[in-house]
């Protein structure tokens, strides 16, 4: 088994990269070698030693401070070598970590390579508003005023989140990377893991002097008045999109969209099915028998329709193109008039005689109810004690 020399090790040579290699090049080289010499893949004892060297090299070269020590000719992992990574020293190997941390380090998860600071400026969320309209408004369209409560850009700091004359400061805890790295000892060797910096919340910067208006968020909540154009023919439940009228994102990010959801109030005369309208009209029995003419008030006009003689109950009249305009395309739906034939409930003697005479002329037999009552009436009187 090889022994480690007291002289500084060539960490660049271990990973096979040049001294000018970028962080991404170092990370790719580490992943390639880690897969090749991982003990689960290569059980050779020499491979295990090689795997430990690869982890040590990546630990050093992925840390700016330790890499600087190497570039100056030192070894940050050697005892007394000026580094903080030796066993027992600050930042050295901690307790064993779980299998997930190892996989993250190998394959680019939470502990694998540097992810970099997350941006303070992020897109905003969408918003939704309920708008109630009458049937006439949904049918023919309307320009409706609306009031929305959303986050808008802070005009004091223009979304920067800093007070006037101040700027963001690089986080001292993570050096602006937005994450902190640690080296942990596992049964496979040392593993470098990274976690979001708790001081800057992963942004890599802090706000020493927040904007007094938005407290550093870059946006404030306010109530706005807008006008939304409702097209003709919209239906209940439809949504109209107003681009970038929703929530402004943190840090003054691009606003989301505002969706106006249509809710149609019930009409006292008409019911709607798609683009067709339906209504009910009651006509007397005599009008249905003899025929008549009705004046129907539509949504935007008055129409005269003929009820033919002999119209039966539950008959329907159709008025073409008197419904709701089509949302897409031209033309309109139809209006359906459902007729309810009303039979009189009370007749005076003369009216009753006229109807009976009319029935006789048609050869229709109409049994006359006895004024003294029928069989069931006599049974009822007997139970009530009447003679």
Automatic annotation (TrEMBL):
Chief location category: cytoplasm
Binding of Zn(2+) 2, residues: 171, 174, 197, 200
UniProt zinc finger (CR-type) residues: 141-223
Region named Disordered: 73-94
Record: residues binding Zn(2+) 1: 154, 157, 211, 214
Gene3D superfamilies tied to this protein: DnaJ domain, Heat shock protein DnaJ, cysteine-rich domain, Urease metallochaperone UreE, N-terminal domain
One BP annotation, GO: DNA replication
Domain called J: residue spans: 10-74
InterPro entries assigned: DnaJ (IPR012724), DnaJ_C (IPR002939), DnaJ_domain (IPR001623), HSP40/DnaJ_pept-bd (IPR008971), HSP_DnaJ_Cys-rich_dom (IPR001305), HSP_DnaJ_Cys-rich_dom_sf (IPR036410), J_dom_sf (IPR036869)
Record localization: Cytoplasm
GO molecular function: ATP binding; heat shock protein binding; unfolded protein binding; zinc ion binding
Keyword Repeat among UniProt keywords: yes
Cellular component terms (Gene Ontology): cytoplasm
NCBIfam families per record: DnaJ_bact, PRK10767.1, PRK14278.1
Family: Belongs to the DnaJ family.
Subunit structure comment from the entry: Homodimer.
Description of its domains: The J domain is necessary and sufficient to stimulate DnaK ATPase activity. Zinc center 1 plays an important role in the autonomous, DnaK-independent chaperone activity of DnaJ. Zinc center 2 is essential for interaction with DnaK and for DnaJ activity.
Name used for this protein in its record: Chaperone protein DnaJ
Organism: Micromonospora noduli
Lineage: Bacteria, Bacillati, Actinomycetota, Actinomycetes, Micromonosporales
């Amino acid at each position: 088994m090889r022994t480690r020399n007291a002289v500084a090790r060539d960490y660049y040579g271990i990973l096979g990269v040049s001294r000018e290699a970028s962080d991404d090049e170092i990370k790719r080289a580490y992943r390639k070698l880690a897969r090749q010499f991982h003990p689960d893949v290569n059980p050779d004892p020499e491979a295990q030693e090689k795997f430990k060297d690869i982890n040590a090299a990546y630990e050093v070269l992925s840390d700016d401070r330790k890499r600087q020590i190497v570039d100056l000719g030192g070894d940050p992992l050697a005892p007394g070598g000026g580094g903080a990574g030796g066993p027992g020293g600050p930042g050295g190997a901690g307790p064993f970590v779980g299998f997930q941390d190892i996989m993250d380090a190998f394959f680019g998860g939470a502990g694998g390579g540097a992810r970099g600071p997350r941006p303070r400026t992020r897109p905003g969320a969408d918003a939704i508003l309920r708008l109630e309209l009458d049937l006439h408004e949904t049918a023919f369209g309307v320009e409706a005023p609306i009031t929305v409560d959303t986050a808008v850009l802070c005009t004091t700091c223009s979304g920067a989140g800093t007070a006037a004359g101040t700027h963001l400061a690089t986080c001292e805890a993570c050096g602006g990377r937005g994450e902190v790295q640690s080296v942990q000892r596992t049964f496979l060797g040392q593993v470098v893991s990274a976690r979001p910096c708790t001081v800057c919340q992963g942004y890599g910067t802090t706000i020493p002097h927040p904007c007094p208006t938005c407290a550093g968020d870059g946006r404030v909540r306010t109530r706005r008045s807008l006008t939304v154009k409702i097209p003709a023919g919209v239906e209940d439940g439809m949504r109209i999109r107003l681009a970038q009228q929703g929530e402004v994102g943190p840090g003054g990010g691009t606003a989301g969209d505002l969706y106006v959801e249509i809710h149609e109030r019930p009409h006292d005369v008409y019911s709607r099915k798609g683009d067709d309208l339906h209504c009910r009209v009651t006509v007397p029995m005599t009008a249905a028998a003899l025929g008549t003419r009705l004046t129907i008030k539509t949504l935007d006009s008055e129409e005269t329709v003929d009820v033919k003689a002999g119209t039966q109950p539950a008959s329907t009249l159709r008025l073409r193109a008197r419904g709701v305009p089509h949302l897409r395309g031209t033309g309109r739906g139809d209006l359906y008039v459902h007729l309810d034939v009303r039979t009189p409930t009370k007749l005076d003697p003369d009216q009753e005689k006229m109807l009976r005479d009319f029935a006789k002329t048609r050869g229709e037999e109409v049994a006359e109810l006895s004024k003294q009552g029928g069989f069931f009436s006599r049974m009822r009187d007997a139970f009530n004690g009447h003679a």
